[in-house]
Amino acid sequence: MADDPKQAACESSRSLEIARAVLELEAAAIRGLIGQLDEAFGEAVRLMRGCRGRVVCTGMGKSGHVMKKVAATLSSTGTPALFIHPAEAIHGDLGMIVPGDVVLAASSSGGTEELLRMVDVLHRRGVPLIAITGAARSPIAERADIHLAAAIDQEACPLNLAPTASTTATLALGDALAMALLEARGFTLEDFATLHPGGALGRRLMTVDQVMHAGAAVPRVGPRASMREALFEMTEKSFGITAIVDDGGGLCGVISDGDLRRLLNTDPAAAGSARGAFLDRAVSRHMTPDPKTIRPDALVAVALEAMERHRITSLFICHGDGRLRGLVHIHDLWGLRRK
C-alpha cells in the first residue's frame, strides 16, 4: 500500500526539524571553542612547529576517525603527520613513534583506557603529548604536556550519547591547529600545489607552462608588420589577439580584435575608402605597450584570477627577461576548473 501522503509529509517535517536542531547544536559546539582557547593553543602550535619528526595523531572510536582527518589535513598543509590507532599502538605500533615526534591525542571523556596506556609509555620515552579533551579534570588532560579544551554542552544526538557535537568540535580544533601551523610555517600556494598534484584541485594548481599554447600556435607579428597582417594572424590563430615581438623575441606590445574594432569605429582614417590605407599602417602605432603578462611557473589559479580581475581573455607568458614563451586563454582555464 502506498504511503499516506499526510504521514509522509509529517515525517519529512520531523526530519527537517531534527536536521536543523543537529546543525544548531554542532554550530554552537564550534562557537563554544572560541571562549575555551587560551595560551595553551599557542604553546601547542609552537611545539608542533618545532618538532623534528612527525605529529602523531591518535584517538579511539569516533575520535580516532576524526584524528585520521586531522593527520591528513596537517600533512597536506606542510606539517608531516600520521595516525596511529591506540589499540594497535599498545600492541606493538608504539615503535612507530620515534624521538622528535609529538603526539596529538583526542578523547572526549579524557579517560580512554587505550590512550592512558599509551600516555604512560610516552612519558617514559620522553615524547611530548598534546591532548584534546572535553574534560579538563581527566586523567589524560592532567598527564598531557599541553591540554586543549574542547568541552561541549551536549551532543547533537537526541539521546545525548552518540559522539556528534564532540567530534565536530575536535575536528574544528584540529583544523584550527593546522591553519595556525600553515601560517606559522609560511606555507604558500606553490607549496600547496606541490602536495596536491592530482584531481580537480591539482589541475587548478598546475603551472601555466603546463597548459599554455607555445611555438607556432602563439599569434605574433613584428613591430613593422601592418595592421592587416596583425588581423590575419589573429584570425588564423583564433585567439582574438596577437603579440608584437621584436627581433630578439621580446614582447613589445599586443593588439586585440577589440582594439581593431574600436579603431575602425573611431579613427577617421579608418573610414570608407581610407580603410585600406589604415590597414597598411605599422601595427606598432596602435599596439598596447606593456601588456599584462605572467611567469611560466605561475599557478593556473593565479592566471585565472588575473584574467578575471583585469577582464581580459588571454595572458602572454614571458621569461624574466621579457622574451615571449607562450599564451594561455581563459577558456583553457575554465575547462580545467570544470573538470
Describe the structure.
This protein has 339 residues and is an alpha/beta fold. It has 2 domains: 5-182, Rossmann fold, CATH 3.40.50; 208-338, CBS-domain, CATH 3.10.580. It has 14 helices and 13 strands. The chain has helices at 5-36, 39-50, 62-76, 86-89, 113-125, 139-143, 165-185, 189-195, 199-204, 227-237, 257-266, 275-279, 300-310, 330-338, and strands at residues 55-59, 81-83, 102-107, 129-133, 146-149, 213-214, 220-221, 241-245, 251-256, 288-289, 293-294, 314-318, 324-329. The strands form 3 sheets. Strands 2-1-3-4-5 form a 5-stranded parallel β-sheet, sandwiched between helices. The chain has a 4-stranded mixed β-sheet with strand order 6-13-12-11. A 4-stranded mixed β-sheet has the order 7-8-9-10. Helix 10 (227-237) links the parallel strand 7 (220-221) and strand 8 (241-245). Helix 1 crosses helix 7 (165-185) and helix 2 (39-50) packs across helix 7.
Which fold name fills CATH's third level, the topology of the largest domain? Rossmann fold
What is the rounded Rg?
30 Å
Residue fraction in strands: 15-25%
- Regions with pLDDT < 50 over 5+ consecutive residues? none
**Count of spatially separate domains:** 2
Q: End-to-end distance, in Å? A: 44 Å
Tell me what the CATH architecture of the largest domain is.
Answer: 3-Layer(aba) Sandwich
Helix content: 40-55%
Task: Provide the CATH superfamily of the largest domain.
Answer: Glucose-6-phosphate isomerase like protein, domain 1
* Annotation field: number of helices: 14
CATH secondary-structure class of the largest domain:
Alpha Beta
Most strands sheet:
5 strands, parallel
Number of strands: 13
Class by SSE composition: alpha/beta
Shape: elongated
- The string of secondary-structure elements, in order, is HHEHEHEHEHEHHHEEHEEHHEEHEEH
Strand arrangement in the largest pleated sheet: 2-1-3-4-5
The chain-level mean pLDDT equals 89
